[in-house]
């Protein structure tokens, strides 16, 4: 039974992934409701702020089939009144007999849903695939709750010898079409994409999420340009394809404070070596996503600029959590070593 519930939980995770980029500052949650016979009766994911939570969407889809059934949710159902009523009330009203969730809710105001349900006679099980969910759709939100600031993923593409461009400045394309398509899918799921003013001047990026044929994604992340000084009037980041924030500072903490005030939870840092170095020095890189292409250049700029390290013992240490082939490229995901985490 637990093996089949794990499969159902992974379906809920897939629904949560669909919600990413649309729910902040709320968490992207997925839910599956099974009827009393164990058959899928309803699916749901968190709607934009003010809309129903994942459990409510799934319960509405299930209707009367939810009675006596099981709700499988990626996050412990909330037990508080916010913009919407508590999900625990919806589950009790629907008559579900069992609730299985992955991650306990760390938010002080929303926690306690498991106890509310158990006290009402519902069988409650927590922790199913908790680590997988915490490293997946809930990664950024959990970090935000723990630290009070957005989660920052530094994404870059480089050659085998660590170059992000050739000596003449050309960089299109170091990574493969497969990698680039994956990055555009990631852009669609984050709240903001960040670069420095220098990157805008050098590359004039659009910083939008697009399909392979160039079609813009329905929802675009906030574009953030860090640094003093004006931008060229015709810069792509100033068009109306998406909102752009000018963060006129070089202090990562100030940038993240402003983004947090805007409800931004998940940030993709795509800036050049200088901005990446500043964030590394500030201890503000929470994940590195490196796309390494099987190419050698021998000259040209490297991925990371000065970051406050002068000796090997002072290096910023990371733990590799995943290595995956991405077309001909290798994608490496790494997070700060435990003794360096904020």
TrEMBL record:
Active site, UniProt feature: 55 (proton donor)
Keyword NADP annotated: yes
Cofactor note: Binds 1 zinc ion.
GO MF annotation terms: 5-amino-6-(5-phosphoribosylamino)uracil reductase activity; diaminohydroxyphosphoribosylaminopyrimidine deaminase activity; zinc ion binding
Name the UniProt record assigns to this protein: Riboflavin biosynthesis protein RibD
Species annotation: Actinokineospora iranica
SUPFAM superfamilies from the UniProt entry: Cytidine deaminase-like (SSF53927), Dihydrofolate reductase-like (SSF53597)
Pathway: Cofactor biosynthesis; riboflavin biosynthesis; 5-amino-6-(D-ribitylamino)uracil from GTP: step 3/4; Cofactor biosynthesis; riboflavin biosynthesis; 5-amino-6-(D-ribitylamino)uracil from GTP: step 2/4
Binding locations of Zn(2+): 53, 78, 87
Protein EC: 3.5.4.26, 1.1.1.193
GO BP terms, alphabetized: riboflavin biosynthetic process
Keyword tags: Hydrolase, Metal-binding, Multifunctional enzyme, NADP, Oxidoreductase, Riboflavin biosynthesis, Zinc
InterPro entries reported for this sequence: APOBEC/CMP_deaminase_Zn-bd, CMP_dCMP_dom, Cytidine_deaminase-like, DHFR-like_dom_sf, Eubact_RibD, RibDG_C, Riboflavin_Biosynth_HTPR
PANTHER family: 2,5-DIAMINO-6-RIBOSYLAMINO-4(3H)-PYRIMIDINONE 5'-PHOSPHATE REDUCTASE, DIHYDROFOLATE REDUCTASE FAMILY PROTEIN (AFU_ORTHOLOGUE AFUA_8G06820)
Binding site residues for substrate: 171, 187, 203, 207, 210, 270
This protein's record includes keyword Cytoplasm: no
Residues reported to bind NADP(+): 157, 173, 199, 272-278
Cofactor(s) this protein cannot do without: Zn(2+)
Catalyzed reaction equations: 5-amino-6-(5-phospho-D-ribitylamino)uracil + NADP(+) = 5-amino-6-(5-phospho-D-ribosylamino)uracil + NADPH + H(+); 2,5-diamino-6-hydroxy-4-(5-phosphoribosylamino)-pyrimidine + H2O + H(+) = 5-amino-6-(5-phospho-D-ribosylamino)uracil + NH4(+)
Residues annotated as domain CMP/dCMP-type deaminase: 3-116
Stated role: Converts 2,5-diamino-6-(ribosylamino)-4(3h)-pyrimidinone 5'-phosphate into 5-amino-6-(ribosylamino)-2,4(1h,3h)-pyrimidinedione 5'-phosphate.
Record family assignment: In the N-terminal section; belongs to the cytidine and deoxycytidylate deaminase family.
